[in-house]
Amino acid sequence: NDTLLAAGVPAVGSKNLGPFAVVAADFKDGKVIWSAALPAGPVSNGIIVSRDMVIVSLTDGRVVCFGADGK
C-alpha cells in the first residue's frame, strides 16, 4: 500500500504524543493513518516493516513493535 512511515520528534500541532513518536501517513494525501508515542528517540534508519508489523529501534537500545493499526 501507499503508506509513509516516519519516526522522530512530532510536528508542532500534533496530538500529544510526547517527545518522540512514530507516524504512519497516507502517501497520497498526507493524512495520518495512525501514530504512537515512543519511549525514547529512534535511531537513524531504524524503522523496519515486516509483514503486518512496524519495528522501531530506539537510541536507548530497546526495540518496539507495532501492528499495522499502530497498536
Give an overview in words.
- With 71 residues, the chain is mainly beta.
- It is 0% helix and 54% strand.
- The protein contains no helices and six strands.
- A three-stranded antiparallel beta sheet has the order 1-2-3, with no helix packed on it. Strands 4-5-6 form a three-stranded antiparallel beta sheet, with no helix packed on it.
- It starts with a strand and ends with a strand.
Features of the shown structure:
three-stranded antiparallel sheet, about 70 residues, mainly beta
- How far apart, in Å, are the first and last alpha carbons? 19 Å
Q: What's the arrangement of strands in the largest beta sheet?
A: 1-2-3
Q: What is the beta-strand fraction?
A: over 45%
Radius of gyration: 11 Å
In percent, how helical is the residue content?
A: under 10%
Question: How many strands, what sense, and barrel or not for the largest sheet?
Answer: 3 strands, antiparallel
Low-confidence stretches: none
User: Based on helices, strands and strand pairing, what is the structural class?
Assistant: mainly beta
* Strand segment count: 6
SSE order, one letter for each helix or strand: EEEEEE
* Mean pLDDT metric: 88
**Annotation field: number of helices:** 0
- The outline comes out as globular
